[in-house]
Structures are given as structure tokens and as C-alpha cells.
Amino acid sequence: MSTTDTTTVAAYAAPAAKAPLERVTIPRRALGERDILIEIKYCGICHSDIHQVKEEWGEAPFPMVPGHEIAGLVAAVGAGVTRHQVGDRVGVGCFVDSCGTCENCVEGLEQFCLNGATGTYPIGPDGEPTYGGYSTHIVVTEDFALKIPEGISLEAAAPLLCAGITLYSPLKRWGAGPGKKVAIVGLGGLGHMGVKIAAAMGAEVTVLSQSLRKKDDGLKLGATHYHATGDPETFEKLAGTFDLIVSTVSANMDFDAYLGLLKTRGTMVNVGAPSEPTPINLFSIIGGDKTLAGSMVGGIPETQEMLDFCAEHGLGAEIEVISADRINEAYDRVLASDVRYRFVIDTATI
């Protein structure tokens, strides 16, 4: 593709809300002075891609090219680029720009840019659509491309750009480590990375899942214990057990029951995003001086830290690599919880 003019590249897009994705061509901007062109090699399928395509998080622009778990190689660089060179292994996560000057950006919390971070998709601050990683190439500002260490394959690294940092950030912030008992609620695309990362941090990890169907997997991934939340006795047996609970569940749940599993002054962090409001009895927090918190992805510095941590500990996502013509099938399987544990698109098949 040309690097001097706006051009078109192949991609997979949803033409309308709830419509199957299909092969299209999309525009990519010309390289600016501090831009890099990335030849995308792999892109993970995140559950949030499905939420967006189905317009479950509000009105969205179409056609929509999802994808914010991007791993690839630098194919070209702008004249002023200093952070990356052609051939570098790089990744792009959930956002591709921010103002760079507000309080949050200065602190490395670009995801909370007070002037609005630009998501990898579906729309930019100017109201124009942005297109994600279900594509052969993407152009981003150099500061928003992460270095993928050699210790992780590109395909296993792709989901780390969302699933990995989404779990790393709260586990680090709320002190997962030696002597701490951590529960991960849900063993899916997010949860399996939570188990791996919490165990690598030195915590005693428990998986709380609806059934024991994935127990063997959970223990292999690093959990010490595995309990079924579908069994009411679980909540009696584990009452007051955990220092930290991280819930990856995107459906409404009984928060009062889960808060009862925390120790005094324990914390429950929610990274799942239910589409409907969730009721809670505040006495579940007040009794025991507990905290119910939320967490999103990390900023650029923390995401790089996460990638380096995963490389150091030999961590990558558990993946099933698929061709692009199987994206719609993969969406159906994600909704049926029929993936262990992340679909990754081989973009050479687009």
C-alpha cells in the first residue's frame, strides 16, 4: 500500500447493527511525521467487539470495523518517528490517541484523557469513524504503539492488548501478590488471563465459575482452587475469604453475594460491562468496610509494563487462530462460551 497518500486496505466490517461481518475495503490515512504504518498480522476478537456490532452500548456508526487487540510489524515510519523502526514487533490496544496535555495524560492515564481519548474504533473526536484491527494495515501515532517483546509470539500477544491489560491493571493496583487471596470470577477470554497474571504475581488464586466444567483448565492456568457459583454452598463455604475479587462477567450478577466473600476491607473490582444497571444493597459494602470498584484498560506506560511482565513470566493468551471468513462463526461461539479462550484472526486471510 502507498505510504504517501490516503489509500484503501482490506478489512472485515459490519455493514449495519447486528449484521454479519463481510469483506470490504476501508481508507487509511497517509503517514504523518510521527505516524507509523503497521502491517497487522493478528487481531483478537474481544467480547466488546460483539457488544459494539450489536449496538448494545448505544448508537454506533456503520460500517464498523472492530478490533483493538492488534499485533503486527512496522511497515513504514514517518520522518519524525523515533520510537519504532521498520520491522519492529508492535501492538495496538483500545485507543490510538489522546490530547497528551491534560492531567491524566501527563500521568500516563491516557485512557481517561479529560479531552477524550480516541478509540481504535468506532469513532473519533471529530465524529468521523475510526476503523479497528480486523484489517490488513493500520496507521497510528508512534506513541500509541506498544513494543511486543520477543518472548511472546505475535498471535498469543494480540489479546494481551485488551484482555491482558484489563486484568493486569486492577491486579496490580489492588495489590495481588504473595500472601493475598485473589478470586477471578469467570474463566473466559478475560478471566483466563487474570488467573495467569495473578498467579505470576504470587497470589493464591481461586476461580469462581458457574460450573466446574473448566476446572482442569483453571488449575493448569495457575489457580489453586476452583469453585462453582451455581452451588449455593459455595457462598457459605467461602464467606470472608478473599482480599481481592476481580469479576470479568458482563451479565448482571448478585453483587451482595460476592461482596460477602471478601475479607474485612477487601475489594471487589468489576471489569465486565453489563448492559443494564445492577442493584446493590449498600450494607454489603458498609459492613466490613469493603470496596466495590471498577477498572478499565491501563494507560500506555502500564500496558508496556504488562507486556514486559508477560514476556518475563512466559505468559500469553490461550488462543484459537481462525481465518477471517470464520469471524461470524466465532462471534456465535463466543456468545455460546465455546472458545478456550480467545479467538485470534490471522489477518493474512482477509
From TrEMBL:
Source taxon at top rank: Bacteria
Keyword annotations from UniProtKB, A to Z: Metal-binding, Oxidoreductase, Zinc
Keyword Oxidoreductase on entry: yes
Entry-linked Pfam families: ADH_N, ADH_zinc_N
SMART domains xrefs: PKS_ER (SM00829)
Enoyl reductase (ER) domain mapped to chain residues: 19-345
GO molecular function terms noted in the UniProt entry: oxidoreductase activity
Transmembrane regions listed in the UniProt entry: none
E.C. number: 1.1.1.2
Top-tier EC class: oxidoreductase
Reactions catalysed: a primary alcohol + NADP(+) = an aldehyde + NADPH + H(+)
Names of required cofactors: Zn(2+)
Family stated for the protein in its record: Belongs to the zinc-containing alcohol dehydrogenase family.
Protein name in the entry: alcohol dehydrogenase (NADP(+))
Organism this protein belongs to: Streptodolium elevatio
